[in-house]
């Protein structure tokens, strides 16, 4: 991806150097995620300007003696294999100046007699980072742009991010079943315990009992990396979006062995299996005298997506059952708000649980860890501020249609590179 693309993209008016206030990173096995706050031009609440509607909600009367800055929380991702694009983006947008450099500047200006700070180019800047890549790429960040990564634990960030989003963002959680998307109102006093299933390259399953109270209780290596890796080998597609696009159009019946294939078109109703239930994923390929190239790539992609989603859904249900958990929240970029993936996960959970355990999804599915890393310094009080807003939380601007036929054609459409309005405390 061209790192300069965002300069001309839909966020160009929001992302200008000098407007970035705080940045955090989550560098995983497949994707590097960025969360950063950009200030609005008319951003200060509590000054004479009094431009912001937030003033009316009483937020500026907080116990803190800091102005409240209105702006946007931005979400962006890069493939980890193209980590240099991510670095170039950070550099070209001067995102890293939203790290500690500004704070150092302010401190030095306030400190009479202090020398002028060095130019940004010669200053080491520290930014919060989580995920395995915070370790793997630490030297690269330092060598290229003198950025020092302040490492936060991946699981801590994942849980902190999920808890924060579920507790504070309006319309964050939703159910998806039979083409129906339904937002779920989360009562933060009745959120815990729940099972967090993060479907990244691999899959982590975490029992969450409160803020900072969690245990990783299960996991599986058959996850998003498996879908992307096997899909690439089997369909020869060049990008994840291409693979996802194929899966929209495919029909798994061409590849999977169904109950009806075994039972001569009949249901096996005695044990509750309809003729269309998959009896064996990819099983049809054994009984036909065909090579891989004789199958349509879209059918292979569909079957693969279904196999992996079903498997994760079933393990999730069993894990929830094992710990008596009624709610399962799915996150991770594997999902990509793909209706078919969400539907398959929900059906897999529901098939055995009969509604006892509920499958839910998060709007910011792939950014849980990055949001957690962003929150970890909490020097800007985003959490405190949003929590104090009570009902008047800033609405999420991430409304979109989940039409089954909708194909995510463009970067930025269904891919999570978005932003929401919010406010932070000024330094
Ligand atoms: N544009 C994309 N490029 C590559 N993979 C994508 C893309 N969009 C979604 N994915 C899927 O998302 C997965 C990565 O999800 P996520 O970013 O949540 O995990 P990660 O942090 O990279 O992995 P881990 O936590 O295991 O280190 C990929 O393996 C792939 O299945
Ligand atoms: C190794 C991590 C934690 C890295 O994010 C993730 O990819 C994962 O949870 N993998 C699954 C490993 C397992 O539990 O089998």
Automatic annotation (TrEMBL):
Entries under InterPro entries matching the protein: ATPase_NBD (IPR043129), Type_II_PanK (IPR004567)
Keyword Metal-binding: no
Signal peptide: none
Reaction it catalyzes: (R)-pantothenate + ATP = (R)-4'-phosphopantothenate + ADP + H(+)
Keyword 4Fe-4S among UniProt keywords: no
Broad enzyme group: transferase
Localization in the cell: Cytoplasm
Alphabetized GO MF terms: ATP binding; pantothenate kinase activity
Pathway(s) of this molecule: Cofactor biosynthesis; coenzyme A biosynthesis; CoA from (R)-pantothenate: step 1/5
Gene3D superfamilies given in the database record: 3.30.420.40, 3.30.420.510
Pfam families per UniProt: Fumble (PF03630)
Any single GO BP term: coenzyme A biosynthetic process
GO cellular component: cytosol; nucleus
Top-rank taxon: Eukaryota
Keyword set, alphabetical order: ATP-binding, Coenzyme A biosynthesis, Cytoplasm, Kinase, Nucleotide-binding, Transferase
EC number: 2.7.1.33
Family to which this protein belongs: Belongs to the type II pantothenate kinase family.
Protein known as: pantothenate kinase
Organism: Arachis hypogaea
Upper classification of the organism: Eukaryota, Viridiplantae, Streptophyta, Embryophyta, Tracheophyta
């Amino acid at each position: 991806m061209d790192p300069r693309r965002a300069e001309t993209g839909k966020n160009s008016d929001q992302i200008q150097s000098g407007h970035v206030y705080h940045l955090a990173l989550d560098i995983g096995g497949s994707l590097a995620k960025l969360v950063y706050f950009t200030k609005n031009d008319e951003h200060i609440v509590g000054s004479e300007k009094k431009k912001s509607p937030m003033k009316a909600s009483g937020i500026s009367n907080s116990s803190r003696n800091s102005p409240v800055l209105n702006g946007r929380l931005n979400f962006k991702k890069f493939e980890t294999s193209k980590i240099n694009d991510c670095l170039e983006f950070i550099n070209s947008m001067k995102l890293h100046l939203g790290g500690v450099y500004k704070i150092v500047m302010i401190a030095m200006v306030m400190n009479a007699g202090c020398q002028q700070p060095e130019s940004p180019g010669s200053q080491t800047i520290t930014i919060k980072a989580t995920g395995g890549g915070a370790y793997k790429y630490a030297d690269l960040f330092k060598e290229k742009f003198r950025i020092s990564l302040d490492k936060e634990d991946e699981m801590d960030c994942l849980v902190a991010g999920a808890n924060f989003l579920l507790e504070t963002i309006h319309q964050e959680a939703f159910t998806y079943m039979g083409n129906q998307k339904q937002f779920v109102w989360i009562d933060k006093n009745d959120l815990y315990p729940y099972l967090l299933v993060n479907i990244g390259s691999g899959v982590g399953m975490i029992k969450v009992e409160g803020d900072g109270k969690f245990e990783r209780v299960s996991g599986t290596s058959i996850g998003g990396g498996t879908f992307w890796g096997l899909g690439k080998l089997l369909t020869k597609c060049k990008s994840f979006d291409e693979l996802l696009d194929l899966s929209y159009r495919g029909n798994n019946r061409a590849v999977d062995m169904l109950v009806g294939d075994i039972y001569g078109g009949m249901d096996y109703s005695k044990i509750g299996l309809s003729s269309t239930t998959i009896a064996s994923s990819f099983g049809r390929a054994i009984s036909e005298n065909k090579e891989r190239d004789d199958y349509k790539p879209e059918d292979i992609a569909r079957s693969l997506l279904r196999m992996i989603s079903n498997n994760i859904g079933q393990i999730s249900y069993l894990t929830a059952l094992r710990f008596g958990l009624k709610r399962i929240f799915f996150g991770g970029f594997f999902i990509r708000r793909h209706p078919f993936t969400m539907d398959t996960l929900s059906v897999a959970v529901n098939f055995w649980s009969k509604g006892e355990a509920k499958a839910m999804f998060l709007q910011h599915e792939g950014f849980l860890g990055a949001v957690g890393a962003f929150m970890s310094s909490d020097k800007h009080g985003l959490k405190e501020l949003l929590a104090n807003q009570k009902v008047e939380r800033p609405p999420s601007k991430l409304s979109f249609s989940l039409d089954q036929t909708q194909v995510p054609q463009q970067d930025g459409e269904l891919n999570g590179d978005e932003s929401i309005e919010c406010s932070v405390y000024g330094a």
